[in-house]
Amino acid sequence: MAMSKRMRSIVRTGRLALAAFTILVLSATAVTAAQAPLAFRGGQTSKPQANTAAAPWWKHAVIYEIYPRSFQDSDGDGVGDLNGITQRLDYLQTLGVDAIWLSPIYPSPLVDFGYDISDYQSIDPQYGTLADFDRLTSEANKRGIRIIMDMVMNHTSDKHPWFIESASSKTNPKRDWYVWRDGKPGGTPPNNPPNNWTSIFGHSAWQYDPKTSQYYYHRFYIQQPDLNWSNPAVENAMFGAVRFWLDRNVAGFRLDAIPTLFEDPKLRDAKLQPGTNAYGDPNQDTSLYENLPEVHDIMRHLRATVDKYPGQRVLIGETYLPNIAELDKWYGGTKHNELQLPMDMLVGFINKLDAATFRQRISDAETKISGNQPLFVFDNHDNIRSWNRYGDGTHNDAIAHLLAAILFTTRSTAMMYYGQELGMTTTPPERKEDVKDPIGITGWPREKGRDGERTPMQWDDSKNAGFSTAASTWLPVAADYTAKNVKAEQSDPNSLFSWYKQLIAMRKTNPTLRDGSMTMLDVTNPSVLSYVRKSVSGHPPVLVVLNFTGTTQTVSFDPRKDHLPSGNAHTLLTNATSLQQQSSLAQIELPPYATWIASLQ
Ligand code: NOJ
Ligand code: MG
């Protein structure tokens, strides 16, 4: 299994943009594509979902990722904060958000903007205080919105007291909390690391510490030493942090980089693969340091811990995995005893509008995860925004509509990233000296870092897009904000925002979309993806038809052959004016990238 380096897809603008994790997805693509049958034999129907009343909240939820630095600044320092988020809760409620996943807000030296934690049980003063956090939680809860914390268990900051102690001497009781090793005999430190493993952020994964003449392992930045999860004391300490937040009433966790907890105890060299990454290191097979089976014991223990709390707390995994069989293991398969929602990155990061691949991957999520609940995601703070990844430069808006339709009309729990609902673009820095994300400095110009997808939320057309009153913001606001912002899109019924809002409302209220089964139709069509959702309790079926191409496509359905009602169709939502009155299934003409969602009577 080759989950390798962080790298992005070639964006259609011709720019080779490289950044974290997408090569995980790209290699995943290769593996799954190779294993997939040549033609999709589809038409399988997933089990209809009954018993809605008993369904846990997260099953029908819209989970909205906020990158706190970039959402709303309340104190004018140019950096977003917790009170800013509290001010914007009404907006999130209007959109239909059920839960917010907050990227890390703990005290941190901010080398990796919060993913390097120096205290797991407090709030970084840049974002506010624990009292601000409690107020955010209670105001959110009043609006039916839950708070999900980002939990970084693989590594701490090198400024965390645990690491400072661990580094202080070879005999310190916390020495074994991290992965320390002698270098290979022969070379001169730091040129003789224990093995050839590379960091996902470039170069050797081993950092030499002259103080104790040993190396420590870091899968991410040098300032993010990996914890040693084979030491039970580490598990105890980290679970203490988990309980701290559960006691504070969080609804669950998004588990950062969770497949990286364990490493091969023998530290064998990784096999090299063809090519180099953005940092010039030879690509390597990551199977000795990613997705090791031991991690599942920890996940079961974590699930048991979380399940002791009332209120259906949820575990969401950042699970870039090579194929659906690996993903199923993260649920605990048929035992359902690990994460409730490991992210399915196999659908959202196909990075190519190919109807057959989408059909295959969505069907896999329906039929190959032991009846567990899928979680699709198209955007996050690590990857070029879907607007740019899937857009062709001409039809980006229609394509964004189509992707949103997939997110909200399949059975998946929906996860989205701030600004996705506006069609926010990735706007990378133009000059190396402006880069904030360290990998953009190490990898320039092949890897410009992740600043481009972390630009401030675009609220209106005023100064700094309404994000901040500061003279300058931590990252510049994207230039398109005067036209593309919440205020403008809220008053435009044809905007992407209005589309998101309608889709979310429809998925919440339409019983078929909530709990109906899912069957792919027209399964050999290479250009149009079609599926029907059918209710168990007599509500009308819902047909979804998506044109994946830039040319007009005509499709038809045969009620008898396709097991559909023979009456008229009634449009629920479309972005094609020509389809608004479409009532027949005999000849449906879809403009480029059009979406048609219809109720079948
Ligand atoms: C995944 C996070 O999403 C990313 O932003 C971070 O840099 C790494 N994990 C390391 O924590
Ligand atoms: Mg690790």
Describe this structure in a few short sentences:
With 601 residues, this protein is α/β, with parallel strands linked by helices. 25% of the residues lie in helices and 14% in strands.
Can you put this structure into words, describing what you see?
With 601 residues, the chain is an alpha/beta fold. The protein has 2 domains: 5-30 and 54-155 and 235-503, Alpha-Beta Barrel (TIM Barrel), CATH 3.20.20; 516-600, Golgi alpha-mannosidase II (Immunoglobulin-like, Sandwich). Helix content is 25%, strand content 14%. It is built from 16 helices and 20 strands. The chain has helices spanning 22-35, 82-87, 89-95, 130-142, 161-168, 232-247, 295-307, 324-331, 345-348, 355-367, 386-390, 396-409, 438-443, 486-490, 496-509, 511-515; strands at 62-66, 99-102, 146-151, 180-181, 206-209, 214-217, 252-255, 272-276, 282-284, 314-317, 341-342, 375-377, 413-417, 517-521, 528-534, 542-547, 553-555, 569-574, 588-590, 595-600. Strands 11-10-7-3-2-1-13-12 form an 8-stranded parallel beta sheet. It is globular, with a radius of gyration of 24 Å. Mean pLDDT is 92; it is low at 1-42. The chain binds 1-deoxynojirimycin (NOJ) and magnesium ion. Magnesium ion binds at residues 154, 219, 226, 260-261, 263.
